[in-house]
Design goal:
heterodimer; A: about 900 residues; alpha+beta; FAD/NAD(P)-binding domain; 4 domains; 9-stranded mixed beta sheet; 8-stranded mixed beta sheet; 22 helices; about 25% helix; B: alpha+beta; Phosphatase 2c, domain 1; 6-stranded antiparallel beta sheet; 18 helices; about 20% strand; globular; transit peptide (chain A); GCVT_N (chain A); GcvT/YgfZ_C (chain A); Pyruvate dehydrogenase phosphatase regulatory subunit, mitochondrial (chain A)
């Protein structure tokens, strides 16, 4: 690849117009045979420094320069397109379960297709298509789900029979297949050449590229990037982009203030063979056999085949440079099971001669999604890494989104699922990463079923009640490292083990959660909700109120003791966070947000609050245990424990008061439950947690109290049409689009972030509308369950996707929440969505290719609210989180 | 019909036993690290026995395998009694006196042996009193004989073997008023057993062998490979010296009838053994004892049958051949096994398999394709075979079990073939004996550090 690049440079210099580029290339050419590796000295300053000359770095450089940023330096420790990029199998596959990843891959494919024409660099692009095989019915279901989302994006894709598979690829043994998915537009490329093509285009646009230059660390002052130190000197810069691949973690940790980039490399093996007697056609589709854990593509008349074994080998990169990483050992014994799978899938290859077993490192992340975005602690420090072995598929799209992020302040799509800020320091432990990636790599091929929980890296953050709840049969899931109860298995009842509980149908906990829901409706339940992010913001004067009034859309100038639901909006009026804020005193506020907001919300506020030592923000998440008492008898339990009247006259809805519960004093009691059911959340200083829990359980006995988990909460909130940030709400959704105008006080007497955008929406209408769907002809016992991401059809036309779903034990129906758009029938242009448009349609939800009739509603069933309350007190379309 | 791998494992592991010499202060000062042992029956009931014990009044450890024939009574008795005879033979005069005084005055006895027994290794409760009295008579004689010399291990071993065989013979001649015991001592005497016993004390390893079980030392060469050193000679027709010895002990007229069809008097495979009074007693004594014995004995065709050409008994002895070996750091382990193992495996293979097992190195060099022409199919076959080899190693936590797995399951390529293993283990009782013999194995692992330290002292 290195030699190739030299040749390219000499080709290009005749065409390249930029003087810097010419100077560099000519001098490099003149010394290309000599040992002197650094022909051109580094510039003293640049606007952007990108570290890493793989597919990610070159793609970011390409897109930044296309968007008009010219003052860019790209540094590469070895040669361009080395590292993982050089070894990458070169498969561009759009069949991705996560929608944003699918969009990135789709864009990449389109970009690579025209790249050769644009740059003149041969990319080896070949539209071969891909076939994903299913050995089981469950696998076929998961493929059908992907096919549904590909189809509504206009990407050709079909579910085919085994017979059709043979027609597409004669070598495949189909006797154990139940079906397959064919994506005809998937492609193959030479990933190194794609990277070189992007570099070529970028350099034509003015990007300076320096090979054999290592970044030692990034300097940050006052929370902003100021420059990078390299082995060839310092470059001052405003922006730094860490595209260092498997070295991104260490590079992040090299500075004084570490940037935590949780990724860890594993060895990844694939096999290259000599050509077949009758060389394989280069247009033969790529085969993915997830049940066999392998992929197979044609390669120079032979095949290239690799996979994701069950026992991955994590790789340490500390102190190892690119060259060492390139010389990793082949390990045939390790590859054995994958070779078996290959020969089972293509028995005809027995006599094919081996050329090489390639060992190339791949970086994996704790949740199987790539990492992009800006550091929460160092402004201007951007990251794009951790591709989980799909670097070439994501490369184009990921580079584009990151470039948009840097230039425009935010990408053109919601990338929260990929945002670096979804992680904190807690995912940065080497041991955690090592254990987790060993689970993640095999998961690449495992069936992705709803409600999957990682098994490694658990029990990191726990509530003080953890052991107590665990002993009572709690089953746990994890969010942002925090253990949370899913449900409680009653004594004597056994659930399926982990592997057998995987299903797309009705899960085995159905009745357990049903009884927890019933108890919430009829008596009282306790849910430990300690994982929520909790901040306290206070000031000596009015600074706190004034700042928050600007950063939040609802009016926070309420009497002390009131709780306000409000969005934390961006300039476009979209939700950066959705929270409840209690006014503890004139000058201090207590803010509750979703668990995974801990890093993002902190960074958002830190960057926007005035630099004033009299204004203090503190993260008090760890200081409080939260117990949610849900149900009509919660009021009885609490009044008995506190000897205080808790009825609506004395303690109205959306109220907050510090009181004593049992012997413990200073418990913050809030009359919200995040479900629309009556009840209270108790914020208890952690040392009192066990005491208060015991008191509540003892006192609650006569009222039928029991423990409940998040699954019950989820069912309750979804049947009440409560949206949840991170699932239903994102930075591209405004309060106007989800029926929460009442939480926006446009006339609160002062400016706030997002106000203009909301005013405009108020006048012109919205282009999507959050809608609740009740599935009509869906059989809970027999039919596939909805999850999220299912396409919504209105009068037979695609209008949007669901964002969450749950079974409502009260309605005895499935409820899906999702957004309805209005695409012009001819042009596809987005039109305003009116109430009439929603109400006058026939709806269907597509679950893995099967469509179910659904009734659309813009307001929840009022019959579900057991207590009549004053309209403004009702948590109607309030918020909830899970 | 096939046994599944777990079924195969449960059969193979039913009798396995391991002992690790306890460490003090994190150090094991014994030259023995520990041992693994196991038995796989072919006869029902199994006729092999094994024993292992630590001498408590002298230093050293005793280990032995015993291969019974014509029933298991003799092997059982020898497995219970022989080590006591050896231990007593090794005791200094003062200790013998102390023990005798304790017995005399009804005080608690000093413990002589610490046994390391599998739950299936039993001791006969009924005979313990009888056995004890015989043993006591032996040490009383030793006290009387007090030579004042320090005990020589070789002497002690030979004396113990001979004395026990003598006691077995005497007990059968004297009989016992208890009819159960009377029948027992007769069965012990009329059946036979070979014995191969190791005594390890520091770097001094003594092997006392009577019969055709075998002791083999596993030696690791400087290049890491394994070789086998025999520490016993089989006492059978294949051993020229043995044939010579037997011929020397009898008149020339019997030369032709002594060894027929590779058997002693055309009947017995081992040329030395405990019991087997039919090859030791005079015809008259045999007839008298059988006739006066219980009916069961009288009705038994075998016991009544007198070997042909039986002119100058005894033809058989229990006297062992003793080999002394000074342990070296390269001596890594000792295998004691009955002929069931040695019939199926060459000692060189035994050395390699145990050596590789104990060191965890399986000569599994990583495979590299390099410039060779290898097809996917060939590579697949190679990897499958390597996996099978590794998995059989990881399945066993006991070196003896691992050896048995190979002894029974090895195919022509020297790798364990599950199908074959399953077939061999599922043979019906009547057939099993035709395809394999009882196998008993003890693998003793030596502590090279301790042995090295001993060497440096000397």
């Amino acid at each position: 690849a290195a030699g190739m690049f030299l040749r390219l440079l000499s080709d290009i210099q005749w065409r390249a117009a930029h003087p810097k580029w010419r100077r560099m290339t000519s001098s490099q050419r003149s010394t290309s045979t000599a040992a002197e590796p650094h022909p051109v000295s580094l510039p003293a300053q640049a606007q952007v420094v990108i570290c890493g000359g793989g597919i990610m770095g070159t793609s970011v450089a390409y897109h930044l320069s296309k968007m008009g940023w010219k003052d860019i330096v790209l540094l590469e420790q070895g040669r361009l397109a080395a590292g993982t990029t050089r070894f990458c199998a070169g498969i561009v596959s759009t069949a991705r379960p996560v929608s944003i990843e699918l969009k990135m891959a789709h864009y990449s494919n389109k970009l690579y297709q025209q790249l050769e024409q644009e740059t003149g660099v041969q990319t080896g692009y070949m539209k071969t298509g891909s076939i994903s095989l299913a050995q089981t019915q469950d696998r076929l279901i998961s493929l059908k789900r992907i096919a549904s989302s590909l189809n509504v994006m206009g990407i050709p894709c079909e579910i085919i029979s085994p017979k059709k598979v043979v027609q597409l690829h004669p070598l495949i043994n189909i006797h154990d297949l139940v079906g397959a998915m064919y994506v005809p537009e998937d492609a193959l490329v030479s990933s190194a050449n794609v990277s070189l093509a992007l570099a070529t285009a970028a350099s034509r646009n003015g990007v300076q590229i320096h090979e054999r230059t290592s970044v030692s660390h990034v300097t940050v002052q006052k929370g902003r990037v100021t420059g990078v130190e390299t082995d060839r000197g310092r470059i001052q810069c405003e922006y730094f982009v860490n595209c260092a691949g498997q070295w991104a973690y260490e590079l992040g940790h090299s500075g004084e203030d570490p940037v935590h980039i949780p990724l860890h490399a594993c060895e990844h093996f694939y096999l290259l063979t000599h050509p077949l007697k009758e060389p394989l056609s280069s247009s033969l589709p790529t085969v993915v056999d997830p049940d066999g854990r392998i992929y197979i593509r044609n390669w120079q008349g032979g095949i290239l085949s690799g996979g994701f074994e069950k026992n991955p080998k994590p790789l340490f990169t500390e102190g190892r440079n690119q060259l060492e990483i390139q010389n990793l050992q082949e390990d045939w014994d390790h590859f054995g099971p994958l070779l078996s799978a290959l020969l089972r899938r293509m028995p005809g290859l027995e006599a094919l001669q081996i050329m090489q077993l390639v060992n190339c490192p791949e970086s994996f992340t704790p949740d199987m999604r790539c990492i992009m975005g800006e550091s929460p602690t160092a402004r201007g420090y951007f990251v794009l890494a951790g591709m989980n072995s799909a670097g070439i598929s994501y490369g184009g799209g990921a580079g584009k989104y990151l470039a948009e992020w840097m230039v425009n302040g935010y990408p053109s799509e919601n990338v929260w699922p990929l945002d670096l800020k979804r992680f904190g320091t807690l995912q940065s432990s080497r041991t955690f990463l090592r254990h987790r990636v060993m689970e993640v790599m095999p998961l690449m091929c495992d069936l992705k079923v709803p409600r999957w929980d990682f098994q490694t890296g658990r029990q990191l953050r726990t509530s003080p009640l953890y052991d107590r709840l665990d002993a009572q049969g709690a089953r746990w899931m994890e969010k942002h490292g925090f253990e949370r109860v899913k449900y409680f298995v009653p004594p004597g009842k056994d659930l399926l083990d982990l592997d057998h509980s995987k299903t797309f149908y009705k899960p085995d906990w159905f009745d357990i959660v049903g009884s927890e829901v019933k108890c919430c409706k009829e008596a009282v339940c306790v849910i430990d909700m300690s994982s929520f992010t909790k901040f306290e913001i206070s000031s000596t004067g009015d600074q706190a109120l004034e700042s928050l009034q600007y950063l939040f859309s609802n009016d926070l100038d309420v009497p002390v003791g009131h709780v306000v639901h409000t969005g934390m909006l961006n300039e476009k009026g979209g939700y950066e966070n959705d929270c409840s804020i209690a006014r503890l005193s004139k000058r201090s506020f207590f803010m509750i947000s979703p668990t995974d907001q801990q890093v993002h919300c902190w960074a958002w506020l830190k960057n926007r609050l005035p630099d004033d030592s009299n204004l203090i923000m503190e993260d008090v998440t760890w200081k409080y245990t939260a117990l949610n008492l849900i149900g009509p008898r919660a009021v009885d339990v609490l009044s008995e424990l506190s000897y205080a009247p808790m009825t609506a006259e004395h303690f109205p809805s959306l109220f907050c008061k510090e009181m004593s519960v049992g012997y413990a004093n200073g418990i913050r009691v809030m009359s919200i439950t995040h479900t629309g059911e009556p009840g209270f959340v108790l914020y208890i200083p952690i040392e009192y947690a066990l005491h208060v829990y015991n008191e509540v359980m003892n006192m609650g006995q006569k009222y039928g109290i029991r423990n409940a988990g998040y699954y019950a909460l989820r069912s309750l909130r979804i049947e009440k049409f409560f949206a949840f940030w991170g699932q239903d709400l994102d930075a591209f959704t405004t309060p106007m689009e989800c029926g929460r105008e009442f939480q926006v006080k446009l006339e609160k007497g002062m400016q706030f972030l997002g106000q203009e955008a909301l005013l405009e929406q108020k006048q012109n209408g919205v282009y999507k509308r959050f809608t609740m769907f009740i599935l009509e002809d869906h059989d809970t016992d027999m039919d596939l369950w909805p999850w999220w991401g299912e396409p919504i059809f209105r009068n037979g036309r695609y209008v949007g996707k669901t964002t969450s779903s749950a079974y409502s034990y009260t309605l005895e129906r499935h409820v899906c929440l999702g957004f309805v758009h209005h695409f012009d029938e001819k042009t596809g242009e987005e039109l305003v969505v009116t109430t009439d448009f929603i109400n006058q349609g026939e709806y269907e939800i597509d679950i893995a290719g099967q469509r179910f009739q659904a009734k659309a509603k813009l307001y929840p069933f009022s019959s579900l609210f057991t207590q009549r309350r004053r309209k403004d007190e009702v948590e109607l379309s309030g918020y909830q989180r899970e | 019909f096939y046994l599944t791998p777990p079924q195969v494992n449960s059969i193979l592991k039913a009798n396995e036993y391991s002992f690790k010499v306890p460490e003090f202060d994190g150090k094991n000062v014994s030259s023995v690290l520990g041992f693994d042992s196991n038995q796989l029956p072919a006869n029902a009931p199994i006729e092999d026995r094994r024993s292992a014990a630590t001498c408590l009044q002298t230093r050293g450890m005793l280990l032995g395998v015993f291969d019974g024939h014509a029933g298991c009574a003799c092997a059982q008795a020898v497995s219970e009694r022989l080590f006591y005879y050896i231990a007593v033979s090794l005791l200094p005069h003062e200790t013998l006196l102390e023990i005798e005084n304790a017995v005399e005055s009804g005080r608690a006895l000093l413990p002589i042996l610490q046994w390391h027994k599998h739950p299936n290794d039993y001791f006969s409760k009924e005979a313990s009193k009888l056995y004890f009295n015989s043993l006591r008579t032996y040490w009383q004689e030793l006290i009387d004989l007090n030579s004042g010399e320090t005990t020589d291990v070789r002497e002690a071993l030979i004396n113990a073997f001979k004395r026990l065989d003598n006691d077995i013979s005497l007990e059968a001649q004297v009989g016992d008023p208890n009819s159960f015991l009377n029948y027992l001592v007769l069965r012990v005497a009329f059946s036979g057993a070979t014995a191969c016993v190791a005594h390890v004390d520091g770097v001094d390893l003594h092997i006392a062998n009577t019969g055709d079980s075998r002791a083999m030392l596993g030696v690791q060469e400087e290049d890491g490979s394994w070789s086998a050193v025999n520490l016993s000679y089989d006492h059978n027709a294949q051993n020229e010296h043995e044939v010579e010895r037997v011929k020397m002990e009898h008149p020339k007229s019997e030369e032709k009838s002594l060894v027929k069809q590779d058997r002693l008097l055309g009947l017995l495979m081992p040329f030395r053994a405990f019991g087997d009074v039919k090859f030791k007693w005079s015809i008259e004594l045999q007839k008298r004892v059988v006739e006066s014995g219980p009916d069961q004995l009288n009705d038994n065709e075998y016991t009544k049958f007198i070997p042909p050409n039986y002119h100058t008994p005894p033809y058989l002895t229990a006297e062992p051949e003793v080999i002394h070996h000074k342990l070296r750091p390269q001596d890594k382990f000792l295998v004691l096994a009955t002929d069931g193992l040695w019939e199926t495996m060459h000692r060189q293979d035994v050395a390699r398999i145990v050596g590789e097992y104990l060191t965890g190195v399986h000569h599994q060099q990583p495979i590299a394709v390099g410039g060779y022409k290898v097809t996917l199919g060939q590579m697949h076959g190679l990897l499958t075979e390597r996996r099978a080899r590794i998995s059989s190693v990881f399945e066993d936590q006991n070196a003896a079990t691992h050896l048995i797995r190979h002894a029974v399951g090895n195919n022509e390529f020297g790798t364990v073939d599950h199908e074959r293993l399953s077939k061999m283990l599922s043979l019906p009782e009547e057939l099993a004996r035709m395809y394999r013999d009882d196998i008993t194995i003890i693998v003793v692992q030596f502590n090279s550090h301790v042995i090295g330290a001993y060497q440096n002292e000397e």
